[in-house]
Design goal:
Order of helices and strands: HEHEEHEHEHEHHEEE
Number of helices: 7
Number of strands: 9
Strand order of the largest sheet: 1-2-4-5-6-7-8-9
Shape: globular
Helix content: 25-40%
Mean pLDDT: 92
Largest sheet: 8 strands, mixed, barrel
Structural class: alpha/beta
Strand content: 15-25%
Radius of gyration: 20 Å
Distance between the termini: 56 Å
Length: about 220
């Protein structure tokens, strides 16, 4: 039997090691030597951002959420869009897809909010299940709607879109099998292996703390 003193010391050691591991985790990013192009994706939920400071901390590019579904606009998009350009950060826009609203209407909402900019990064459509939307359309219907959506957005932006697809959505709908577009995969710390083809972008951490951002930020890398 351990004495009380030894137990307290053991518990304290565990707590300290946990704190150290957490501090390492929130500062971690994939090695720059392997992934030279690194950046962030943000929304109004990210909080205040000093883009020049963030650029100095290693963010070479930034993606900002512009629209959510067919009716919601991210309130910080316009300020992020302007601030990225002013700071010399390559910029792109994201539409967050809703399984509960018509894809065509979602595309039109995105095209209304995001200006055409030939210097911008390809637009991204983010597919993730949302607890606030229980709808799960059949695959054929969804594919047809997303196909039309992609065509509308690409006609507006002049560039092929990126598809940010979570593992759970890919497992149910196999979007990467239907659309020959670059995959933006997600997965904390471990390089993702799902999808019909290798990823072009990887959200490597959604808890990173970095200079220039008020709270945790989504940290991304691009494949060479």
């Amino acid at each position: 039997m351990w004495g009380l003193g030894r137990f307290v010391l053991f518990a304290a050691a565990l707590a300290l090691s946990g704190v150290a591991a957490w501090r390492m985790a929130i500062r971690w990013h994939p090695p720059v030597e392997r992934y030279p192009s690194q950046g962030v994706d943000v929304s109004e939920a990210t909080g205040a951002i000093e883009w020049p400071v963030l650029k100095g901390a290693g963010a070479e590019f930034g993606y900002a959420v512009a629209t959510v579904g067919a009716t919601a606009r991210d309130r910080a998009f316009q300020s992020h869009w302007a601030a990225m350009a002013a700071a010399g950060v390559r910029r792109g826009a994201i539409h967050v897809f809703s399984f509960c609203q018509p894809p065509a209407a979602q595309a039109d909402a995105f095209n209304t909010v995001v200006p055409r900019d030939d210097t911008a990064l390809p637009a991204a459509i983010a597919f993730a299940f949302d607890e606030g939307c229980a709808d799960r359309p059949d695959r054929g219907h969804l594919i047809d709607g997303v196909k039309d959506m992609i065509e509308r957005i690409e006609s507006h932006t002049g560039k092929p879109v990126l598809l940010q697809v979570t593992k759970s959505v890919e497992k149910e709908y196999h979007l990467t099998e239907s659309f020959h577009r670059s995959l933006w995969a997600t997965g904390n710390f471990l390089s993702p292996t799902y999808g019909a083809r290798g990823w072009r972008m990887w959200r490597a951490s959604d808890i990173r703390r970095v200079d220039g951002v008020e709270g945790p930020v989504n940290w991304d890398v691009a494949a060479k």
